[in-house]
């Protein structure tokens, strides 16, 4: 059955040679069964990017290398093709506001309560069912948390004075005490002391997500010290060191081993990182770095888009801050690309309903998340990981700006049908599986963050409007070659009501 296959109807750009899907599926399944370990508070936490790159190396990577498909993918470039039409355009309805307000308020509570107020560092994950003594903070979650403070003040969840005090404490700690290397931050830290945890790497993309939060606060809170600290934190990041002998940025650097061997070489959540580096006035990336990474065309059920062998979150994270609506570079319209990728994922989940009957128009969404057996990188198309019917609410919620009403059907169904099993004081659980009657006790900071930011952007565009005031963001997009344009049948202001008959093609050669 096609639902069991890795490629799941997805193929590379025109002219590509395809191996049987099972050729890849068996190797990747072996990787997941042998290498993904159950979660426990005592084990060293590993990022979704570590799982992805190891999965590619030990699973997909070896199979593709043996087949000759990796070079083909690397050489294939997107070209304009027409595809099956998207669903009718949708936008939020007035009756959606109460639920999204409840979601955002609950999400904000996580960032307010699961943060050390003295350091501003946000806990990577927290249990909602029992007291949680874990102290691991994530710098990416801290970037979402800083942005949540701006949203929280804007929405009236906290006062300006409360928000400003927390922002100041965070920026002071980031500038004066949290260890860095060439301005880049370590991936994991003790939320109470800032001490590096688990020999984690200096992370390029996680630093970028943190900086997005820093710049959001600089624009939202008119305060001289906040402004100065944000400038200092951003300007000391040596992007040119990271790209000294390469146009493809490494995932990070370790004091023990130097630069990591993995590169940001294919489309993923990398866009925000490259754009921030291009926007730097002190250590800017070269313009050619933007065009160096590959934009591989995928096709599923007649939909063609730039994609990756990666979960749905790669189509979301950069869009949380950078406003790609009504803009394109020489390669693609990335906002519409995420619309297409999200719709492809929704259809993929509906096809999986043949095996997992919980998936439906009212319950879909698979991305890197917890599972009954541990943290798993899964999703599709193409099929990735040992999908078992688990739903990750942030997969759909993080796609709110792209498919507003299809996502609202999912969120309303989860809240109404599964109640307290899937809903907590901090919002939706990280994942759940109704077929197995398993409900995650935890929430994860970055998934709670993408839910909150995308809900706010869909409601008001607040994060986009605030962040895009930064000259660094504007300069980065300018240097990357983004130009405003009005897609056929729309104006930039109507981009959220996205799906016209001409929106099927987001990519061009």
Could you explain how this protein is built, in words?
A hairpin with a 2-residue loop joins strand 12 and strand 13. The chain is mainly alpha-helical and 509 residues long. Helix 6 (160-176) runs parallel beside helix 8. The protein is 42% helix and 10% strand. It is built from 17 helices and 19 strands. The strands form nine sheets. The protein has a three-stranded antiparallel beta sheet with strand order 6-7-8. A two-stranded antiparallel ribbon has the order 1-18.
Topology record:
Elements: H1 21-35, H2 48-67, H3 69-75, H4 97-113, E1 125-127, E2 136-138, H5 139-155, H6 160-176, E3 180-181, E4 184-185, E5 188-190, E6 202-203, H7 204-220, H8 224-235, H9 239-242, E7 252-254, E8 258-259, H10 271-279, H11 288-292, E9 296-300, E10 303-307, E11 327-328, H12 334-352, E12 369-371, E13 374-376, H13 393-397, H14 404-422, E14 423-424, E15 427-428, E16 432-433, E17 438-439, E18 442-444, H15 445-459, H16 462-467, H17 471-479, E19 483-484
Antiparallel strand pairs: 1-18, 2-5, 3-4, 6-7, 7-8, 9-10, 11-19, 12-13, 14-15, 16-17
Outline of the structure:
By secondary structure, the chain is mainly alpha-helical. It has 17 helices and 19 strands. Strand 12 and strand 13 (374-376) form a beta hairpin.
